[in-house]
């Protein structure tokens, strides 16, 4: 009887954890993609109806998102979507340069032939989407952004550090939040920088790759602010 009771508790605990994870992922996605607006108050009853979960689970997930910087917990006022600003965008860009640069350096050092093939394939998809964008067709904007993300993720996946990849994923998602809102396609400049990133990585030219990465990220931020 105790065994059955313990098994039932374990099952309930597992189901509760799965609900929490799916709720966390759904809220995080809605913040990144702008379905939940910057500075919007996150009313628990409204969220309960929207995501179909309990208030206690929502509080737990919102606190988790607060620790990651996607949500702000204001004393006596509740939870709010984190605001956006030019200064914050620059700070996130600097953090991305630091984290992605370190991961790229390790990947260039550790990457094998399999890694080389993967970054060539990822760049091919990105390049094709850039060519379509350069022709004036922006109907594939979401596809271009996805291939851009895939290329940068593939570049650093040979760093052999799960912790580093997890940190990068959080930073990149914060950057993606701005990219979806204000960052724009820089045309041939961005396409050229991606080619140079590929070539310098394949050549194991770490110094050039890190410099191109810095130019690429900073250039995207400044281009958006100017426009």
What is the CATH domain class of the largest domain? Mainly Alpha
Poorly predicted parts = 1-13
Total domain modules: 2
Shape: globular
Amino- and carboxy-terminal Cα gap: 68 Å
Structure class: mainly alpha
CATH superfamily of the largest domain: GntR ligand-binding domain-like
CATH architecture of the largest domain: Up-down Bundle
Helix content: over 70%
Explain this structure to me?
The radius of gyration is 20 Å and the shape is globular. The termini are far apart. With 227 residues, the chain is mainly alpha-helical. A two-stranded antiparallel sheet has the order 1-2. It has two domains: 2-81, Winged helix-like DNA-binding domain superfamily/Winged helix DNA-binding domain (Arc Repressor Mutant, subunit A); 86-226, GntR ligand-binding domain-like (Four Helix Bundle (Hemerythrin (Met), subunit A)). The chain has helices at residues 2-32, 44-51, 55-68, 86-110, 113-134, 141-156, 162-181, 188-202, 206-226; strands spanning 71-74, 78-81. It has nine helices and two strands; from the N terminus they run H-H-H-E-E-H-H-H-H-H-H. A hairpin with a 3-residue loop joins strand 1 (71-74) and strand 2. The model is unreliable at 1-13 (pLDDT under 50). Helix 4 packs antiparallel against helix 7.
Key traits:
227 residues; mainly alpha; Arc Repressor Mutant, subunit A; 2 domains; two-stranded antiparallel ribbon; globular; disordered N terminus
């Amino acid at each position: 009887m105790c065994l059955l009771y313990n098994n039932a508790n374990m099952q309930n605990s597992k189901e509760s954890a799965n609900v929490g994870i799916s709720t966390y992922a759904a809220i995080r996605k809605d913040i990144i993609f702008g379905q939940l607006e910057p500075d919007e108050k996150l009313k628990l009853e409204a969220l309960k109806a929207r995501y179909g979960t309990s208030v206690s689970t929502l509080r737990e997930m919102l606190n988790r998102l607060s620790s990651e910087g996607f949500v702000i917990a204001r004393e006596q006022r509740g939870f709010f979507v984190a605001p956006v600003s030019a200064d914050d965008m620059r700070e996130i860009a600097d953090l991305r340069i630091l984290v992605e640069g370190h991961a790229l350096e390790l990947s260039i050092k550790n990457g094998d032939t399999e890694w080389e093939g993967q970054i060539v394939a990822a760049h091919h998809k990105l390049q094709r989407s850039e060519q379509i964008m350069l022709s004036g067709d922006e109907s594939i904007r979401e596809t271009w952004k996805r291939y851009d993300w895939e290329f940068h993720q593939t570049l650093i996946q040979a760093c052999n550090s799960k912790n580093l990849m997890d940190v990068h994923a959080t930073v990149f998602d914060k950057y993606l939040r701005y990219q979806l809102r204000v960052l724009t396609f820089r045309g041939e400049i961005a396409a050229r920088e991606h080619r140079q990133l590929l070539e310098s990585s394949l050549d194991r030219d770490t110094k050039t790759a890190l410099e191109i990465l810095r130019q690429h990220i900073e250039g995207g931020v400044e281009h958006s602010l100017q426009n």
